[in-house]
Each structure stands twice: as C-alpha cells, then as structure tokens.
What does this fold into?
Amino acid sequence: MTDVAVRLTVNGEIRTATVEPRLTLADFLREYCRLTGTHLGCEHGVCGACTVLVDGAAVRSCLVFAVQVDGSEITTIEGIAPPGGGLSAVQAAFRDCHALQCGFCTPGFVVSVTAFLRDHPDPSDEEIRAALSGNLCRCTGYQSIVEAVRRAAAVARGEE
Amino acid sequence: MTRDRDAKGARYAGARVSRVEDVRLLTGGGTFVDDVALPGLLHACFVRSPVARAAIRGVDVSAALGLPGVRFVFTAADLNPGVREQWHTSVGPKSPETPRPPLAEGEVRFVGDPVALVIAESRYVAEDACELIEVDYEALPAVIDYTTAEHSPALVHESHGSNLIGEVAGLTAAALGGDFAAAAHVAGETIYQQAYAPVPMEARGIVVDYSPAGDLTIYAATQAPHEVRLFCARLLGIDEERVRVVVRDTGGGFGQKVMVQRDEMCLMLAAPKVGAPIKWIEDRRENLLAAGKSRHEHGAVKMAFDAQGRIQAAYIDFVADCGAYPTPWPVFPAVAVGALFPGPYRVPRAGFRVRTVYTNTVGRMPYRGPWQFESLAREVLLDIAARQMEIDPVELRRRNLLRRDELPYANANGMTYDNVSPSETFEQALRMLDYEAFRAEQAAARRAGRFLGVGVSNYVEPSTPGHGYYKREAARMRIEPSGRVSVFVTGGSSGNSIETTVVQLAADAIGARIEDVDTIQGDTALAGFGAGAAGSRSASMTAGAVGEAAGLLRARVVAVAAHHLGVASDDVELADSRAFARAVPSRSVSLRDIAAIAAAGELPDGVESELEASAEYKAKTHSIWVNATHVCTCEVDIVTGSVRLLRYIVSEDCGPMINPNVVEGQIAGGTVQGIGGVLFEHLAYDDAGNPLATTFMDYLLPTAAEVPPIEFGHIETPSPGPGGYKGVGEGGAIGAPPAVVNAVADALSPFGVKITRLPLTPAAIVALLEGSETGRR
It folds into this structure.
C-alpha cells in the first residue's frame, strides 16, 4: 500500500508526516513525534495505557491508525499539564494520593480521568470505579487512584 | 520541617513524603526501555513455536531475508554457539540448572518457545518477516498435565532422564504416622492452585548497543541491573567492565524481571553480530505466552489436632509445575513451601515432601511470594478443619497462634521466627472488622436469603535474604558544589518507590532538607554492587547502605564545618542542609559553603577535602521475618456464582515504616494481585498444550470495579536490621488468596461445599453449588 500524508495537531503543534496506512496512532505519537509518554500495555485495546484525547474524546491509540485521525486534534499526556509548567489538577491529585507506583499505566489513567471529570464533574464512587474499569493497573490496587479522582473532582469544583 | 528537631533522629523517615518519581511519570517524562531511542536502532521480533513439543526439521529464512528492511535472521546455529557461561549471580555457578538454549535447538518445548530472531528496520517489518519464516515441525508427544508428568513416558528434557526435576523431603509422612494416628481429629485435603503470572503492565524489553570497541550498553526492563550486567559478561565471555546496564523506569516486575531469560540472552548474543543497537520489546501476547508462569501447584496437606483443637502435627506433599524452562532452578523455592507450611502457629511436629516437574508449557518464574502456596494450603485447611470440628475458624486460630512470649520460635522444620507479632496483627484485624458484629450481620443476611462470608489468613514470611548475592548493597554519597546531596545506589526502581525511600533515608542521615537530595539509580557504571529489587529486600538493605555511606560522609562534612566554625567536631550538628555549632545555634554554615571550603582545599591536616563516600552494607541476619493477618468479607450470588468483596482488612507488622504511603501501596497492590489470582486470573492451557489466555480478553486482571477498598492496620515490631525496617513488597500476594478463598467458603458453608480448586470463577462456584448435596436438593 502507498504511504499516506497526514496532518495532525498534537498538543497544539501541527505535525505532518507521510506514513504507512497501518501505522497506529500510538506508534505515530511515539516514533514520529517522540512523545513517549503514551505507553503500550497490550496493543489490543484492553489495558488503556495508550489512551489519548482525539478531538477531546478518550481513545485507545493502539486501536486507531494515524491515517484515521488525519486532521484531528490530539492531546497526549505531555499536553495535559497547564501551559507554563506544573501539574494539572488530575496529575496533582495522583501525586498527592500515591495513585501511581511504576507509572507505566499512569498516563492512560490521567488522560482517561481528565476526560471523565470534564464530563462528570461530581461523580459518585461507583461512577468513578466504573469509569476507571477500562484502565488496568497492576501496582496500586486502584483505591489510591479512586481517591485521586475524588480529590481532583473536589479541587475542580473548588471544594479543596 | 524545622531544624530544632534532632537531625540524628528520623525526620523524613516515617512521614508520608510525596514521591520524587511522580512528576516525570505523571507528565509523560519517564524513560521506560521502549522509550530509548538511539541512532540506527534496529528492531527485533521472535518466531515462536505454535506447538507444545516438536522436533525442528528445518528453518527456511530465505523469504524473510529477501524482505526489504530485514537485516538479519538468526537461528539456533547462529546464536547458541556464542554462549560462554550461563548462570545467575543470585544462584551461583554450581546450581544444577535446566539447559537453556537461547533459541530452540532441535526441539521446541512449549508454545511460545523462541525459534528464530529477526532484526529489521522497524518492528512492523520484523513482524512481517516472522510471518515469512517457514519452520518444519514434526510433532512429538507432549507432557501437559503436570500431575502425571513424573510418570509420563515422554520426556521434556531427554538429557535430564526424567520429568521429575527434584524431590526434597523433611520428616516423612510415615515418621508422622503415630502423631496422626493418635490425634483426636485429622483434617486432610488436596488443594490446587491454578497457573497465574506477575503480568507487569510493561512487558519485558531490552536494548543492546554494541560499540565497535567491544563495549555493550544495555537498557533493560529489569529489577536487577547488576545481575543483567554480570550475566551478560559471562554469557559473552567478556570482561565485566565492558558491560554497562542503564535502567531508568521499569514498568512493574513483581519477580518477572529478576532473572535474565532466553529471549534477552538472544539479544545479547546477536548485538555483536549486528553492528547496530537492537531493541526487543515484548508484546502482551508474547508476555502471556513466554514470560513465564507462576503458582500452578497442588499440595496434599493434613493436620492433626487434639480434642481442644490444638495442632499436633502438620504435613504437606507438594508438587509444582515448572514448565519446560524454569528460571531459576525451582527445587529450592519449593523447599520453602514445605519449610514454611507450619506458619505462625504452634506446631510441634511437621514434615514435608516437595516435588518439581517439567512439562511442555511455559517455564516457572519468580512471582511475589514465590512460596505462597504454604499459606494458601494451611489457611484453607484450617478453615476446613474448623468446620469439621465445629469450632469457629477464628477461635481455632486463636488457640494455635504464636504469642510474643514464645519468640524466638523454631518451627518444626527448623525455621526460627523472631521479631514478629502474629497474635497482635490477628486481634487488630478482627477488631477493625468487628468480627462478632459481622457474624450477626451474616446470620441476618442468611435469613433473608443472602450469602455473606468472612475469611481470615495469617502468615509469616522471611524478607531480606542475607546470604550470598543478596547479602550486599552499596551506596555512594557526595556533596555537590551547589551543596546538593547526590546518592548513587543500584536501585531497581520498578514501582517500589525506592528513589523516594533513598532520598528520605539520605536526608535524615546527612541532615539535609529532602528537596536538596537527589538520587541516581539503575546505572551500573555509577552505582556499586547491589542485588536490586527482590526478596522484599530494598527497604532494609538500602537503609543499611545509605546509613553506612552517610556515616562516612557525615564525618567529613562535620570535620570541615568544625574547622570553619572553630568548634570541636563533637559540637557540630547537621540539620536543614546546614552545620550548626551546637552551643551557639546562630553560628552555622550551609552545605554549599562547606563544599566551597572543602574545594578551596586550605584545610588542616586530617581534614579531608573530598566530600564523597562509598560504603557497602552487609546483611547481618539470614532473613528478616514479617507477618500479617488478612481479613476479607464477601457476598456470593448463588445464582450467578459471582463474588463481591465487601471489606478487606490487612494488619501487618513491617516494623517502623519509612513511608506509610509506600507501605500501604505495596500491601494494596500485592493484595489485589492475590484477589485476582483467586477470582479472575488463569494462565490456562488446553490438553494439547495450547495456551488459552494470550490476551487481556482471556487473561482477566482485576479492575477498579471489582476490588474493595483496603483498610490498613499496623503493628510495629522492629527488626534487628537497619532502622528496624522489614520488607513489605511481597506479603499482600501471600496473605490475600487464602483470605478470599475462606470468605467464599464461609459464605457457601450452608451448602456444604468444600473449596479445594482455584480459580473461583462464577462458573466454578455454580458448579460447586450444583455438586453439593444442599444445592442438588
């Protein structure tokens, strides 16, 4: 198959490349953009480590080809922190709640939670656990992550 | 943090300090092995056996070599002759070992066995090339069922002459015959645990960069950088200083990344032939096929009790499936199962027999609490015995648990426990639950047709092995010209928060503000020898190493400060990154100024100008004992067979905590792995040796939706090691399985079902209910 030209906006910067149609978005980000914070934990869409925002929606970048998202706006973990440095409310809550250990699954969780809290600013614990069930973590046992989501939500609502 | 607290007293140790690892990991700035990019980097992919056992009649690589972008295809004939020595430092050169050809030679022995290695310009092309390689297999009879492997006519390794790898026995069943014959009650069952695996979220991976001058730089996902270095040097027959291993972030290990496996050997052997850096990143399918299995074992266990329910004797006859290429030699880990079977109980007489067998399945590998079957079997049997004797399982344990005044206590197999608190963690966990209240709630629920259960487990485990390779840990500390403190250790950072731990310990030891301390880990060129993250050793051993190095450095800093302040060394106090004249606290000098004074070099005789010190700590005990109690409650849906965990309580005694966040994180993570092992995870094979769980659609990990919050209780009995610290990395995975099994069995006790096989999937529970007398009615 012939290579295809793509043009994506990644974390606010325009990225163009000519790629194989079979190149996944994850590999485009990791190999072409050198944004290696997007991690591959299963490459079959279960673990959620590769989650990025595509036009605002949380998407598993291992299941999408770069050519499918031509023209889209992508936000990766590298683009989550506020401009000028520091951590986003979600990132800070993960740090404060010890919600990461090895950190491999963490970018996927942070991106997923960022999208979830944008759409559900005041979630119940049950909603949080359901929302997190698409991301696998092997280190934490999840409760610190649930706590981090609670805290990030409270901070965003101005309660903490 | 204020300076009026004694700098010699712990200031940061014990506090819930934020992790220094977090900012890079939260912003995508971590460096895992797949993130390593080098000019000219080539990518590796393995051709793996699709059958459990076959003779290799031929390998045709011509089509693959013709594919544009493919640089090399290696088979056994290319790589295997390069092996010079092949042994792990942790095991030593004299251990009997399974022969481990890097690539399968003549015969494949499990589905996933590596047969050929492709090196190409991209992983995509490498995978394409693997599809083009034709391997001519001639099927051979395979040994799949480990319970009959010992007597199978087919042999996994002809050279071994038997599928029995090893058999070790303590006191025999016959020798205990009288004890069991005389007992008021004997309980006995055969308990089976299915295969499951560490499954770190980052699979294995390695980058090997061979320079024309003959130096190798290896980037690896490993828990033990120095092991990788020494293993590689021996494998290739080159000097150790030619090999440098660099590890920044490792995405979980849990034992899977402690040893060097055949796949990694292939990359080491191929690198000098390729002439460019090569990278192998294991994908999830490969990880579930080839990275190894754990558990998969059974034990025929029995206990003798007197009329009051006091244990008189215990015996375990244990068999472990070790697959085709176990790493390391699995006989000694199996002995731990036998030796620890009596657990934290008063057991006057005990015996064991442990057997390990080969099968044509993936090899057995270390996993968090490798011997945990002893706790599973003992605690499940205790509950079965309690029901038979009509004694509450909590009461039965209470009558038999060791008390503090009985320590040190040599168990009947010769393991001497000390500095543990089994009765205290047990009572604390039960108080946290309010056991009597739960029993009342359970009774009320049963009247309403709902089935709740409670399960308890106790264990005692040896952490921080103090022999051989594991005995040593080095640290180097230096005051930089800026006054910042750098600490160099081997580390083995794989989610264990060892960077934060080191920074906390070093800040206390040298009297620095924690934000002034940096740690550089995982680079064998910078750090002295350390055995890495294994055996729940990092806390104690690193505390020892940092303590020794800081002691030396502290003396140098104090000498320079004393000279500058015009006081005696004994009158200098270090705190807050400054040195104070004890009698006149307004007189002080910063570490930065001390560094400048030392660098200027105008010091009196006997005062060293070099503000750097290295030291090695050697463990002073054979092991450091740790204990815990797990209590779990659940509700079982008797129609669907699903289990919902309600409360989960862990009371542990890891001595003083360096960082309670880290301790609780380790316990929670290990516990959830244990829960997954009981309820979800199964590295299953069919009768022909085909793996049935090669994706996360089939190998089910627990998610946030299934696990309960975990409540923590802490008892603090200091160890005899540095700081009184103990290891806490593995215990969660040991204590959880029996607590969950016992809770489910308790919930189902009205049906008279007996649980002796794992995992407890909904289908398994429904089958148990349908097979029970009450269920049939």
Q: What stands out?
A: Chain B touches chain A through 59 residues (CB under 8 Å). The radius of gyration of chain B is 28 Å. The CA atoms of residues 245 and 708 of chain B lie 39 Å apart.
